[in-house]
Specification:
A: 114 residues, mainly beta, six-stranded mixed sheet, four-stranded antiparallel sheet, 12 strands, B: 114 residues, seven-stranded mixed sheet, 0% helix, 49% strand
Chain lengths: 114, 114
C-alpha cells in the first residue's frame, strides 16, 4: 500500500508567480503512478498531471509540471504563472499498478492573491 | 455527454435510516468507484467495481454495500446510517478494467447523519 504525505495545509502565492506544492510518498511497489488532482470550491475533482514510476522525464501539462525525484520519494507539483482560478485544494495521489484504487494525500489549499 | 452523475446532491438522514446513493456514467467505462471525503482530508476508497458484476472492498467498506447494476450504474447503500458516515461521497469511473490513473469524478453527494 502507498502512503502519501502533503505537509503544507495552506499556501499563498501572488498572481503570475510560480508555486511548488510538496508531496512525498512511500511505497514498496516497483511500479506505481503519482498524480495531482485539483478540487475547486465547487467540489469537483479535476485530474491535472500524471507521472509513472518508470518515466525518466518529468511530466508537464501546460502550466503544470511534476518534479519527480525518485530517490527522495517526492513528487512535487509546480504551477507556473499562477492565476486567480488556480485557487483550490490540491491533492497528491498515488496509485499502485497492482491495485485499482488511488491513495490520496490530505491536500494543500492554495490561494492565489491578486 | 454528462460524464459521471450522482443523485442526490444533498441528503440529511437520521441515525439508523437507510438510503442509496446513485451513480451513473455515460462514457462506457469499465471501472467505477465510490469514495468518501471527510472535512480537511483526501478521498478514501469505499468500494470499487472493475467490471459489471464484480465489486471489491476498498479502504473503508464497513457500513456500506454496493451494487453494480449494469455497466453504467454503481450504487452505494447505507443500511443503517451513523453520524460517522457524515461525509461527501464521490463516485468515479475509469475506462479500463485494470489500473487507470485518470479517474473521472462526479460532483459529489453531501450527506449529513444526525
Amino acid at each position: 500500500a502507498q502512503k502519501i504525505t502533503q505537509t503544507q495545509p495552506g499556501m499563498f502565492v501572488q498572481e503570475k508567480e510560480a508555486v511548488t506544492l510538496d508531496c512525498t510518498y512511500d511505497t514498496s511497489d516497483q511500479s506505481y503512478g503519482l498524480f495531482w488532482y485539483k478540487q475547486p470550491s465547487s467540489g469537483e475533482m479535476i485530474f491535472l498531471i500524471y507521472q509513472g514510476s518508470y518515466d525518466e522525464q518529468n511530466a508537464t501539462e501546460g502550466r503544470y509540471s511534476l518534479n519527480f525525484q525518485k530517490a527522495r520519494k517526492s513528487a512535487n507539483l509546480v504551477i507556473s504563472a499562477s492565476q486567480l482560478g488556480d485557487s483550490a485544494m490540491y491533492f497528491c495521489v498515488g496509485g499502485d499498478t497492482g491495485r485499482r484504487a488511488l491513495t490520496f494525500g490530505s491536500g494543500t489549499r492554495l490561494q492565489v492573491q491578486p | 455527454n454528462a460524464g459521471v452523475t450522482q443523485t442526490p446532491k444533498f441528503q440529511v438522514l437520521k441515525t439508523g435510516q437507510s438510503m442509496t446513493l446513485q451513480c451513473a456514467q455515460d462514457m462506457n467505462h469499465n471501472s467505477m468507484y465510490w469514495y468518501r471525503q471527510d472535512p480537511g482530508m483526501g478521498l478514501r476508497l469505499i468500494y470499487y467495481s472493475a467490471s459489471e458484476g464484480t465489486t471489491d472492498k476498498g479502504e473503508v467498506p464497513n457500513g456500506y454495500n454496493v451494487s453494480r447494476l449494469n455497466k453504467r450504474e454503481f450504487s452505494l447503500r447505507l443500511e443503517s446510517a451513523a453520524p460517522s458516515q457524515t461525509s461527501v461521497y464521490f463516485c468515479a469511473s475509469s475506462p479500463g478494467v485494470y489500473f487507470s490513473y485518470e479517474q473521472y469524478f462526479g460532483p459529489g453527494t453531501r450527506l449529513t447523519v444526525t
